[in-house]
C-alpha cells in the first residue's frame, strides 16, 4: 500500500494515498454494495416470502418478531465487535481478521436459511448470520476513519454511499426476480459477500497491528465505555438521534414494502415481487446520482449538515406520495423521490459520523462507530413492531405507517441542526 509507515500509536494516523487510496475506495464501495444488497434482498423479499409460505395467517407478526429478535442481537454485536477490533493485534491489522472470518461464518449461516422448513429454525440461522455480518460491518466502516483524511471523507463517503444505496436497490431487484428460486437466491448473496470480503482483505493490506501497545480488557470498564455522555459529547448525541429517527421512518416502510404492495395497493403475490424489483430499478438511478453528486459537492464546499438535512426532508416528501395516491403511480413517485433523499442522506451521513466521534488517544473509533451503528439497528427492532401495532390499531390501514414514517424522517432533520462541530 502506498502510504506512510504504520505508527506505534494513534497520534499519527496513516492516510492512504495514490493508487492504494483509489483501490481502497472502490473495494469499500463493492463490499458495502454487496452487503446492502444482501440485507435488502433477504430482509425485503426472500424472508418475507419464506415467512408468508410457512405461516400465511401470521406473516406480519412473525416478520416483526424476526426483525425485533435479529436487531436485538445485531445491536449488541455491532459496538462490541467494533471495540474488540480496536484491540485486535495481528500481522494482518485490526480490522481485516473481523472482515474475513465474520463474512465466512455469516455466509454459511445464510445459505442454511434457504433450507429451513420451520419459522424457528429459519429464525435461529438468520440471527446467527446477522450477528456475523454485524460483527464485520463496523470493521469496514472504521477503515474510513482509520485510513482517509477528514477533508476527503465526503467524497469517500459519497462513493461508498453510492455503493450502499445502489446495493439496497440491486438486492431488491435480484431477490424479486429470483424469489421463486430460493436456494439459488440465498446462495448467490452468501457466496458474493464472502468472496468479496476475502478479496478485500487480500487487495487492501492493513498495516500490521501486532507492534501496537496491547490493550487488556477489563470487562467492567470495557462495558462502561459504551456509554458516551450526551452532555460531554452533544454533537455525537445529536448525530445518534438524527440517524435513529430517520431509520425509524425509513425502516417502517421498507420492512413492509412487499406487504404494502399486496395489501395496500392490491397486487397479487407474483406481481408484487416483480413490482418491488421494478421500483427498485428506478430507485437505483436516483440513489446513485444523488449519492455521487452530494458527496462531490460536500467535499467541494466542505459542508455536511445541509445535505443531511435536505436528504431527510426529501425522504419525508416521498412518504406523502402513497398517502395522496394509493396506487402504483404513488408507489413509483415514492420509489424515485426516496432514492434522491436517501442517497443524499446516506452518502454524507457516514462522513458526518466520522467527524463527531469523541477524541481519543486510545484508538476507539471502531467502538464509537459501532455505537453509532446501533442507531440503525435499534430501529430495526422498534420500527417493525411499531408498524405492526399501528396496523392492529388502524385495521390494517397502511396509511398509518406512512404518516408515522413521515414524522420520523422530518424529525431527523431537526436533530442535525444543533450539531456545532460540523458545518
TrEMBL record:
Q: Please report the stretch or stretches of sequence annotated as the Major facilitator superfamily (MFS) profile domain.
A: 25-423
Q: Where can this protein be found?
A: Membrane
Question: What Pfam families does the annotation carry?
Answer: MFS_1 (PF07690)
Tell me what topology the record assigns in the membrane: Multi-pass membrane protein
Residue spans crossing the bilayer: 28-51, 63-84, 96-113, 156-178, 184-204, 244-262, 274-295, 307-325, 331-357, 369-394, 400-419
Q: Where is the signal peptide?
A: none
Q: Which superkingdom, per the lineage?
A: Bacteria
Which Gene3D superfamilies would you find in this protein's record? MFS general substrate transporter like domains (1.20.1250.20)
InterPro entries associated with the record = MFS (IPR011701), MFS_dom (IPR020846), MFS_trans_sf (IPR036259), Tet-R_TetA/multi-R_MdtG-like (IPR001958)
Q: What is its main location?
A: membrane
Keyword Transmembrane helix attributed:
yes
Q: Which UniProt keywords apply?
A: Membrane, Transmembrane, Transmembrane helix
Specify the protein name.
MFS transporter
Amino acid at each position: 500500500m502506498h502510504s506512510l509507515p504504520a505508527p506505534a500509536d494513534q497520534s499519527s494516523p496513516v492516510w492512504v494515498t495514490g493508487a492504494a487510496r483509489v483501490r481502497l475506495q472502490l473495494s469499500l464501495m463493492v463490499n458495502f454494495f454487496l452487503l446492502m444488497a444482501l440485507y435488502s434482498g433477504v430482509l425485503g423479499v426472500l424472508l418475507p416470502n419464506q415467512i408468508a409460505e410457512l405461516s400465511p395467517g401470521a406473516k406480519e407478526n412473525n416478520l416483526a418478531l424476526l426483525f425485533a429478535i435479529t436487531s436485538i442481537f445485531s445491536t449488541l454485536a455491532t459496538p462490541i465487535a467494533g471495540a474488540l477490533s480496536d484491540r485486535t493485534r495481528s500481522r494482518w491489522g485490526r480490522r481485516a481478521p473481523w472482515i474475513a472470518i465474520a463474512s465466512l461464518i455469516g455466509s454459511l449461516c445464510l445459505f442454511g436459511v434457504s433450507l429451513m422448513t420451520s419459522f424457528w429454525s429459519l429464525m435461529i440461522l438468520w440471527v446467527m448470520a446477522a450477528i456475523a455480518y454485524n460483527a464485520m460491518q463496523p470493521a469496514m466502516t472504521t477503515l474510513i476513519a482509520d485510513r482517509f483524511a477528514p477533508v476527503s471523507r465526503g467524497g469517500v463517503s459519497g462513493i461508498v454511499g453510492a455503493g450502499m444505496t445502489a446495493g439496497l436497490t440491486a438486492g431488491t431487484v435480484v431477490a424479486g426476480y429470483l424469489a421463486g428460486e430460493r436456494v439459488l437466491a440465498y446462495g448467490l448473496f452468501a457466496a458474493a459477500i464472502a468472496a468479496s470480503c476475502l478479496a478485500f482483505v487480500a487487495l487492501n493490506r492493513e498495516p500490521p497491528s501486532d507492534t501496537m501497545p496491547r490493550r487488556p480488557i477489563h470487562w467492567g470498564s470495557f462495558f462502561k465505555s459504551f456509554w458516551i455522555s450526551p452532555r460531554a459529547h452533544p454533537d455525537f448525541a445529536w448525530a445518534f438521534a438524527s440517524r435513529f429517527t430517520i431509520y425509524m421512518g425509513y425502516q417502517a416502510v421498507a420492512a413492509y414494502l412487499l406487504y404494502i404492495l399486496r395489501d395496500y395497493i392490491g397486487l397479487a403475490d407474483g406481481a408484487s415481487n416483480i413490482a418491488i424489483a421494478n421500483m427498485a430499478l428506478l430507485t437505483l438511478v436516483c440513489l446513485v446520482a444523488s449519492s455521487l453528486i452530494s458527496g462531490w459537492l460536500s467535499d467541494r464546499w466542505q459542508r455536511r449538515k445541509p445535505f443531511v438535512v435536505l436528504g431527510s426532508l426529501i425522504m419525508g416528501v416521498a412518504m406523502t406520495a402513497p398517502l395522496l395516491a394509493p396506487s402504483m403511480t404513488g408507489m413509483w413517485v415514492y420509489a424515485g423521490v426516496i432514492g434522491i433523499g436517501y442517497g443524499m442522506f446516506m452518502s454524507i451521513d457516514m462522513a458526518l459520523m466520522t467527524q463527531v466521534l469523541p477524541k481519543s488517544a486510545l484508538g476507539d473509533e471502531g467502538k464509537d462507530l459501532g455505537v453509532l451503528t446501533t442507531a440503525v439497528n435499534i430501529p430495526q427492532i422498534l420500527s417493525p413492531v411499531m408498524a405492526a401495532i399501528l396496523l392492529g390499531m388502524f385495521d390494517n390501514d397502511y396509511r398509518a405507517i406512512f404518516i408515522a414514517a413521515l414524522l420520523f424522517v422530518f424529525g431527523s432533520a431537526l436533530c442535525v441542526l444543533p450539531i456545532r462541530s460540523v458545518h
